[in-house]
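Problem statement: downstream parser choked on a complex file, so we are re-checking the raw output for the calcium ion run. The parser issue turned out to be on our end (a line-ending mismatch), but while we're here, posting the original submission so the record is complete.
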Amino acid sequence: MLCRNQLFPALLITTSAASMLVSGCAGTSSSDVGASDTTASTQPGDDDTSTAENSGSEESGSPNNDSGSSDDDSGSDTDTGSMDSDGDGLSDAAEAELGTDPNKRDTDDDTYWDSWEVTEGTDPLDPESRIYIGYWPYNPDKDSIEDPGWNSPDATASTGGMVPHFALEDQHGEMVDIYDYGGHDASIVFDFSALWCAPCRGISEWLSGGTSDITGVFSTSFPSVPEKVNTGLVYWVTILGDGATQGTNIVLEDLQAWDAEYPNEKIVVLAETPQKLAVDKYVAGGWPAILIVGPDMVVSHYPDFSQDPWSSLRLIDTEL
Ligand SMILES: [Ca+2]
Ligand SMILES: [Ca+2]
Ligand SMILES: [Ca+2]
Ligand SMILES: [Ca+2]
C-alpha cells in the first residue's frame, strides 16, 4: 500500500547511536515506532548480506588476467590469430581489425571492455561513445540470470525473493538494465523515493554531501554509508516512484532535477513507469523503501517498515 500522508521526519534522537532513528514517511500511525526495535531488525539479513557475494563472477566471461593468456590458449591452439592476449573476449586478430589495443581490455578508458562495446554497439575507440553515459556498471553475463517475472512466487518482496528483470530510464535519458548491476562484487541498494517525501530527499541530500539537520542524523546513525557508496563498495540505485503529489508519474525532468539537487556521480536516478510494477511490489509500508539486493539479484534484506524503516541503512553501515 502506498503512503497516504506526508510526514515531515520526526527526529527521534536518543543517547545511543544505534537507536538513533529518523522516521520514514508511512501511511499508517505505526510509522513512528521509535528506538525500541533496533536489535531485532538486524538479525535475519546478517548472514545473507555478508555471504551473498560472488566475487569472481564479474570476470567469468573472460577468465584471463592481464599477466598472461596461457590458460585460454593452451593445448593444440597454435594459431596466434585466435589468441586473446588481454582476455577481453576479443581475439588479437579481431582487435587488429578493429584498431583496439590487444593488450588492454578497455582501450579507450571509458570503463567498458572492448568486447562489451562491440556487443552493445558502442565505439571501443571513443570514450564519449559508451554503454552508459553515467558510467553505470555493466554485466556481460546478465542473460544468465534467470528472470522470474513480476508475478512469480519466486519474486516475493521479501528477503530471498528474486528481483525481476526490468529496465528504467535514468537521469541521462537512457534505459538502464537493472541486471547490469548484478554479477559484480558489490551489493545493490534499491532506494524507492518520492518527490513529495521529505525523508527521501533527506537520504539523497545526505548521500550528495549535504549538511542539513536531517543529514546530520543519518551521518551520526549510519556513518560509513556515504563512503561505501562513493567508493563503489555498494551500488546505490535511486528509483523515483511517485511524483510531486501522490499517485503522479515521474518524467525525465524530475530525474534531472533530483540529480541536480542531490548530485552524486555514483548514483543512478531511475524513473518508475506509469504501470508502477516495482513500486507496487516493493513499497509496502512507506517511503523511502530501501532494500538490499545481492549480486545474484536476490533480495538479501527486505525491511519491515513498521518495525524499522532504516534497517537496510544499518546493515549497510555494519555488515557490508
Ligand atoms: Ca583481446
Ligand atoms: Ca583489448
Ligand atoms: Ca571501452
Ligand atoms: Ca567507448
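For whoever reads this later: The radius of gyration is 21 Å.
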